[in-house]
Amino acid sequence: MNIPSPALVTQRAAQRLPRLPLLLLCAAYLLPGLFGRDPWKSADITAFGYMAAIGEGRSPWLAPLVGMLPPESMLLPHWLGAAFIALLSPALEPALAARLPYALLLALTLALTWYSAFHLARTQAAQPVALAFGGEAHVVDYARAIADGALLALMATLGLLQLGHETTPELAQLFAMALLMWSLAAAAHRTVVPRAAVVVSLVLLSACDAPNIALAAGIVGTVVCARSVDAPVRRFAAWAAAGTLLSLAMTLVLQHARWHWRFEFDAEQLLQLSRLLSWFLWPVWLLVPWTLWHWRRHLLKRHIALPLGLALVGLGACIALGGSDRALLLALPALAVLAAFALPTLQRGTSAAMDWFSVFFFSAGALVIWVVYAAMQTGTPARTAANIARLAPGFTAEFSPVRLIAAVAGTLAWLALVRWRTARHPQALWKSLVLPAGGVALAWLLVMTLWLPALDYARSYRPWVQRIARHVGPDPACIAAPGLQRAAAAGLEYFGGWRVDARPETANCPVLLLPEREPTRAVPSMPGWRFVARERRPTDRDESVLIYRRAAASR
Questions:
Q1: Helix axes 401-423, 19-30, angle to 10 degrees
Q2: So what's the pLDDT on residue 209?
Q3: For residue 547, what are the CA distances in angstroms to 485, 495, 505, 550?
Q4: At 541, which helix (H) or strand (E)?
Q5: Hey, is 545 helix, strand or coil?
Q6: DSSP class of residue 297?
Q7: What pLDDT was estimated at residue 541?
Q8: What is the pLDDT of residues 421-449, one digit of tens each?
Q9: Which 3 state secondary structure label does DSSP give 444?
Q10: How far is CA 15 from CA 12, 140, 401, in A?
Q11: Residue 103 clears pLDDT 60, i.e. is over it
């Protein structure tokens, strides 16, 4: 039975987003934060620590150690960064070399989301209703407009900003989920490549420490394909099932399942989860319910069922892991595709509300960023400069004409975009997501240019290691740091060049660092050790260590 489509789209509304502005928007989203900064705490520097240890030859590939501690996740994501460090050193610094493949993974995730929406929008059930006198959108033009909307929706989500620009295993998992969605979406249009991609994506999820996600997503893909009315898609279900079984077998062989599920929630945790969803999924959480309501008679059709099922896998993993934002990250590509299918049915009032909110919110945010930058450079406004000095003691602002030019260009581009959107009345489907995506790209560009030195000072371990180096000296045999977090141990090894032993038992080292969980004025005495100093991270009063030297080695 043919179910009428809720989409009513003219050929004029199906125009695609011009490619040059779209590529510039993607560049403004991908490139800031790639250059000129250190790995940040905590997950970023931890993962990078293992990559650097392998790539620089300080640790074996099969058993890497940071602070004499093994990694808490599987090795494949670490091998990726380590391989680029080994290949590109010393031409590029290790932090940049390790960041390059993950930037490529993010770019591929954006591209796969676009192509997933494109293939799903070309299915028969997703097509807009035919107009009485003709003029309805052509199939390919309509699919391109929906795909442009999905790409803009993904870039507009706030949750992808920081986590998408890190060097952590979750970004490899995100790429695997996007690859899985594309392979299932392209099952009816291609043969060989999607079959290989569905197997590779599920195995990659397991290899990147998400075996439960691979199992759930594989089951969803198999069921959706098996229920399809298209014969090629039904035949594709066997490949999705094979990929699921292969990923499960690999997990059982490696005996590696570190995802611990926890479904108990109290009122406070539910409140925290709702807060996480409200900002992490902005603005797609506004559009996804709209899609589900207007396409409610098509919920079992592949263009809705596939992204909905994969999105539920990510949302379920977030809940099962106690409100994990890194698990919720895996739902973003599917949610972006769902949000794009709301565009053909979106009312003018809702679209205008999203536009004006984006204009005021991101314009106000850009103004704040510029005011704070002026305070860092000139000391005016005085109160803002005083707050910066209080929050980042010891920070000295530096001027970079390149970063300033990039920030000015981004701001002017935002003003031109706002003028274009408010002065005209475009009919393109993707018009409602241009300002949210452009605003997010603007905010990220300004923060990663104007605020980058201050953020690097606040979130890098380099200033903390430099303070410790004044008391430790240039070349101790090793540093014992029992109980120190992996992130801090990675910072000590990378920025200080020391050999750190963070195992619980005290190693035979001339220097001892004890993490101070609850800072007090009294310094605990250690038999055989002489207290030297207490050092805190400049921007974190709660993270400090006590520095000791062996009594026999003390002067």
A1: 140
A2: 87
A3: 16, 17, 17, 10
A4: strand 540-550
A5: strand
A6: G
A7: 74
A8: 887 767 889 999 999 999 999 999 999 99
A9: helix
A10: 6, 10, 38
A11: yes
The long-range contacts involving 385-390, CB below 8 angstroms and separated by at least 24 positions, are 388/454
CA 310/CA 217 separation, integer angstroms:
6
Rounded to 5°, angle at Cα 120 from 331 and 323: 10
Phi-psi group of 66: left, alpha or beta (phi > 0 → left; psi -120 to 50 → alpha; rest → beta): beta
Q: Which two tokens stand for residue 88?
A: 């590109």
177-233 tens-digit pLDDT: 999 999 999 998 878 999 999 999 999 999 998 889 999 999 999 999 999 989 999
- How does the average pLDDT of the chain come out, rounded? 90
Q: 52: Cβ–Cβ under 8 A, 6 or more apart, which residues?
A: 58, 82, 85, 94, 98, 490, 493, 494
pTM exceeds 0.85, yes or no: yes
Listed in sequence order, the residues at least 6 apart from 512 whose beta carbon sits closer than 8 Å to its beta carbon are 479, 480, 481, 506, 526, 529, 547, 548, 549, 550
Per-domain boundaries in the chain: 19-30+101-129+138-343, 348-459, 462-553
Read off the pLDDT band of 273 (50, 70, 90).
confident
Is residue 512 a contact partner of residue 506, using CB atoms and an 8 Å limit?
yes
Q: Strand 511-516: give its sheet, edge to edge.
A: 500-501, 479-480, 511-516, 540-550, 529-537
